[in-house]
Amino acid sequence: MSLRDSLRDFDPDLAASPVQALRVDVSGSEAEVPVHRHRKGQLVLALHGGVTCEVPEALWIVPPHCAVWIPGGMPHSNRATANAQVYFLFVDPEAATLPAECCTLSITPMLREMIRHLAGLPPDYPADGPTARLAGVLLEELARMPVERLHLPISWEPRLRRLAKALADDPSDRSTLAQWADRLAMSERSLARLLVRETGLTFGRWRQQLHLVVALGKLAAGASVQQVSAALGYESVTAFITMFKKALGKPPAKYFASIAS
């Protein structure tokens, strides 16, 4: 089942309940829901596999047991790996004070189980019943969750979109900034300035963040550290693990073990 099939007849804005949850099990090939928007904010939680969310000017990765928060009204698309189990939590803007910007949130086991339980209940429920009380506690916990830095800033600038697409298609490409500038018919200095102006990052930091986003998606989909290291063009597994640990504080195995506990 694809994400498109699962959400074809589902409109979160039609439900009167301020909070509702939906479970989607994806099988077959990788699938994508095209760009859309709705009034309610959306939390995207992946318990298995990986999900990537694209919003204006950024890509966000959803590794297992973390979630991406997308504020209401923001255009976005979701792409899931073939083995993904995804939960969507839709929140009315007036139901809770949640971030006004897109962000990645850590999710505690308790909050994860509340979302799973709510997904098994009817979307319309009495405002004074047990489901409404569960939803209230869920929103209180959600507002307390820490933010993770797991996104890739991108730009609508045509040359940077071309660069981003090329590196996303082949993240093992180790071309220098000067080589990329030549391909884009720019000077090295002009490309360096454009990247900082549009993304806030130098070329080296931006490419490292792209590698982190790609690595998290591949690891969440079941690839080994060795496979991911090779796919990203690292000279050794140790070099890849060092990059990962520097960015997220833990090597891949410990990182995924910590978010699964």
From TrEMBL:
<dbReference type="Pfam" id="PF12833">
    <property type="entry name" value="HTH_18"/>
</dbReference>
<dbReference type="InterPro" id="IPR018060">
    <property type="entry name" value="HTH_AraC"/>
</dbReference>
<feature type="domain" description="HTH araC/xylS-type">
    <location>
        <begin position="161"/>
        <end position="258"/>
    </location>
</feature>
<protein>
    <submittedName>
        <fullName>AraC-like DNA-binding protein</fullName>
    </submittedName>
</protein>
<dbReference type="InterPro" id="IPR014710">
    <property type="entry name" value="RmlC-like_jellyroll"/>
</dbReference>
<dbReference type="InterPro" id="IPR009057">
    <property type="entry name" value="Homeodomain-like_sf"/>
</dbReference>
<keyword id="KW-0805">Transcription regulation</keyword>
<dbReference type="InterPro" id="IPR011051">
    <property type="entry name" value="RmlC_Cupin_sf"/>
</dbReference>
<keyword id="KW-0804">Transcription</keyword>
